[in-house]
Automatic annotation (TrEMBL):
This is Uncharacterized protein. Keywords: Membrane, Transmembrane, Transmembrane helix. It holds the Pfam family DUF8028. Residues 7-16 have a biased composition (Basic and acidic residues). InterPro entries: DUF8028. Residues 1-23 are annotated as: Disordered. The chain crosses the membrane at residues 32-53, 59-76.
Length: 83
């Protein structure tokens, strides 16, 4: 039977610690862009919905905007601005 030593306990990380991006990671800028795209993209819905979704092109554009917004939400949902 083996026991866990203090050094092994200090070396173990929780899943949150492993998921946080390092300072030199490429995921931090991707999360930044995803987050702010998800914030800004709904403003494009307003003129589209104000004029109506009468044509198939307008409806297709609306669906594409929703899909891009969902993708941006997925990419940016772990973004945390460091103040």
């Amino acid at each position: 039977m083996s026991t866990i030593t203090d050094s092994e306990t200090r070396n173990t990380r929780t899943s949150d610690e492993e998921a946080e991006p390092s300072d030199y990671s490429l995921s931090a800028p991707i999360q930044f862009v995803g987050f702010w795209t998800a914030v800004a993209l709904p403003f494009l819905y307003v003129p589209l919905l104000a004029t109506g979704l009468d044509t198939p092109g307008q409806f297709q554009t609306f669906l594409i905007l929703i899909a891009v917004n969902l993708a941006a939400l997925l990419l940016g949902h772990r973004y945390r601005a460091k103040a």
